[in-house]
């Protein structure tokens, strides 16, 4: 398990890296690992989405969607321009990817990750390649993603390995979301 840095007076300093890809990678995602399937969650319930978001993001302090009301969150995940895909391993949810096409001609890989028990099993690379190729099926001019120093240490190297290029890096200070007790 990755441990986010300690706070200083309740403030975290994070570095966010913004990346883009301007052309579909020439090679496809490859064959899926044995027992792995990806299914689109059409109009997922808020509770199912929160399960995926909270479970995948808990160790990395994903907090923005935790702060949204159910109505605010439903408005996003039920928008026809937003697609949620769930990776299953032997019938068990193993991760999710969210593609946001609301700012076309750019598509954003808004959220991507694996449930902790499935990290290190060779699923992440395949699922990331799958999500990238699925995003390009929508015909964008570019694909965007961002990550920060609270995310899994392999996130940025994996994005770079798949062909994303760094566009910008910003350092910011945020209130530690653990202060509210929601990450216990």
Task: Characterise the protein shown here.
The protein is an alpha+beta fold. Helix content is 22%, strand content 33%. The protein has 4 helices and 7 strands, in the order ββααβββαβαβ. It has helices at residues 46-57, 70-77, 123-136, 155-161; strands at 11-21, 36-40, 82-89, 92-100, 106-114, 142-148, 165-175. A 7-stranded mixed β-sheet has the order 2-3-4-5-6-1-7, sandwiched between helices. A hairpin with a 5-residue loop joins strand 4 and strand 5. The chain is globular and about 45 Å long.
Overall geometry comes to: globular
**Low-confidence parts:** none
Q: State the strand order across the main sheet.
A: 2-3-4-5-6-1-7
Structural class: alpha+beta
Helix % is: 10-25%
Largest sheet: 7 strands, mixed
Strand content: 25-35%
* Sequence of secondary-structure elements: EEHHEEEHEHE
Structure annotation, total helices: 4
Mean pLDDT across the residues is 93
The count of β-strands is: 7
Q: Kindly provide the radius of gyration, computed on alpha-carbon positions and rounded to a whole number of angstroms.
A: 16 Å
Span between termini: 14 Å
